[in-house]
Amino acid sequence: MVLRDLVADELALPVDPRVTAMAAGIAAAHGAASRAVLFYGSCLREKQLDGLMLDFYLIVGDYRAAYGKRLLAAANALVPPNVFPFAHDGLIAKYAVLSEADFNRLNGPETRSVSVWARFAQPSRLVWASDKAARAAAIDAVTRAAPTLLAAAGRVEGEAPLDWWRRAFALTYSAELRAERKGRAGSVVDQDRERYERFSGPAIAAIPAGAASGGGWAARRLQGKALSVIRLAKASATYAGGADYIAWKINRHAGTDIRLTDWQKRHPLLTALRLLPRLLRSGAIR
Length: 286
What we know:
Blueprint (H helix, E strand, L loop, with lengths): L2 H9 L5 H13 L4 E7 L12 E8 L2 H4 L3 H9 L3 E7 L2 E9 H7 L8 H6 L3 E6 L2 H12 L1 H9 L7 H14 L9 H7 L2 H13 L11 H22 L3 H13 L7 H5 L1 H15 L4
Parallel strand pairs: 2-4
Antiparallel strand pairs: 1-2, 1-5, 3-4
């Protein structure tokens, strides 16, 4: 089976009806600009969603059409994505906004940023689409992710495919500020071995000739960590409850017990910048 067919089948797998309803609500919040909504992240594996933070990507046709404020559109175009909180039917979520053009580009090898292709090389679900063309465009974009990931890591002679995936994810984790326990990159593969075994052949075959050379990871790490800080600063202006979310995310993934004061909750950017050195020293984020 070719990679696009595998991706299309996986994206079409069913989800909790409340996830579908939340995706429709996210799309409705941005009107006719909305093209597709994808559900991704650790919550895909959870049966009990109450109390968890769900993760979505909203794909739009045009940033200006998606927002009533020009500043938000400009921020999304300059440093994609914008991230917003959302609540529906007792569930809470955050969703990132990308244009169709940016989503396709950021899943491909033309960008050094690992943020999008590292996530969509993993399982996701296409839970809402405005029409067949939007669905096809989303499938095409996601299909680019896995070959980009493996090519960026480069092939090591004699390396088993699952080890290639593990090493590739470990490299991407090192290129962002991540609140994850050590070994998390390997567990991504080990929790779903059959999936990665099934995807390996088609994903490897889809790598363009001469692309699987690896390299460039020092630049990716520098750019990725800098972008993480910039996106954090941007989110402090758009994401209500951002400080609480940051603390929740770190506690959940790093096993810490960060508790914020009222002042810290009111000043998410300053809080994040003040916590960052301590979290780096302790290894809570890397």
